[in-house]
Amino acid sequence: MKIIDAKVIVCCPGRNFVTLKIFTDTGIYGLGDATLNGREKAVATYLEAYCIPALIGKDPRNIEDLWHYFYKGVYWKRGAVTMAAVSAIDMALWDIKAKSLNTPLYNLLGGKSRERVLVYAHATGKNLEQTIEDVGKKVENGFLAVRVQSGVPGLEKIYGVSKDDKPYEPAQKGLPKEESWDTAKYLNYAPKMFMKVREVFGDELHLLHDVHHRCTPIEAARLAKELEPFHLFWLEDPVTAELQEGLRRVRQHSTTPIAIGEVFNSVYDYTTLITEQLIDYIRMPLSHGGGITHLQKVVAFASIYHIQTGFHGATDLSPINLAASLHFDLAINNFGIQEYMPHEEVVQEVFTANYRYANGFLHIDDTPGIGVELNEDKAEQFPYQTACLPVNRKTDGTMFYW
Ligand code: EZ4
Ligand code: CO
Asked: Where are the domains of the chain?
């Protein structure tokens, strides 16, 4: 089998997506998600200018070798842009292999370890009252696990809370919008919010929360400690984990489980976190973390240290990534939970997905390969639009993490 062509499809059904399509001489093609929110064109160019020409003529069945061709073989390695491209190539190659063997992807990853995938939903509100109401809606929809984000008194706009009644979408058209932040106000509010949520919904519901990289290690330690009585499923990104050792401080003070890694793209972002058992869930998505080939290694490494998965599944990752993640989630033993934010309906006009939600779980069918189709004519009707993630300043104007 040979790769005869490949192309990048950039489209914007409500939000931007980058898809890699690899064609083979057998007529079988593969799809990979190359979306990097707010930096879509950088990945598209990396693929078009450097990767696709090198793919032509190669045997798509040699996935491991091709992975290393674009990783070890490249002097400028790692980084979100490069690794999003490597991930898309890898995903498309696994899609080709599974299609050529006429089997769903999970069969090539060890088969099913479970029949369905536990997912968590996003609840959000401008204030405590609206937040509680939204958690109630998710519970009514059957969700067994809910991420709770809320507006903080005294702060105008905040991560995870939408402006209107629509689901939360951080990327906005044009240049980055500015948000503002005050850690002291947030730290005072978050434990009170979870106290109320537990009071209203009881002990059974799994609760999650995303700090979105905004605490120092000692602030994160305080938060994790104060949230302990509300036994969260996880506390996500309590610190910006560039400093892996920072998590030692959090661990010293609290038993609240920690999830990290949606912005990671290599096992080397995780080595201290995993070997010192400083976290409980890895978040690195297939589409940014080197695809199935690299995540298999990271997840096996994590399993030795009793660390589970909780893959990133925000709407800025395409249905191709979500489906690939679901195959992976079904197959591995140390699966924890899968993030699930449903895409807008217009996205489903472009991508035909093979998964469905029911009663707190996602189910995937037996379509060979990853199982998602891209309608190229439809994609053309939604051309790329510049959109960026926000930037964030402290209330005194100091530039901060978003
Ligand atoms: O901010 O995917 O846990 N989920 C998140 C997401 C990220 C976006 C960035 O593109 O933190 O909402
Ligand atoms: Co997050």
From this structure: 3-104, 108-370
* Ligand 1 atom 2, closest CA: 314
Distance CA 240, CA 257 (A): 16
CATH topology assigned to domain 3-104: Enolase-like; domain 1 (3.30.390)
Residue 383 CB burial class (10 angstroms; 0-12, 13-18, ≥19)? exposed
Tell me how many degrees the CA angle 104-110-114 measures, rounded to the nearest 5.
80
Atom 12 (ligand 1) nearest CA:
314
How much is the pTM? Answer: 0.98
Q: Is 104 in the pocket of ligand 1 (CB under 6 A)?
A: no
31: nearest Cα among 269, 235, 322: 322
| Mean pLDDT, contiguous 10-residue spans, the chain (402 residues) | 98 98 99 98 98 98 98 97 98 99 98 98 96 98 98 90 83 94 97 98 98 98 98 98 97 98 98 98 98 98 98 98 98 98 97 98 98 98 97 96 96
159 catalytic per annotation: yes
Residue 212 catalytic?
yes
Q: Which CATH class is domain 108-370?
A: alpha beta
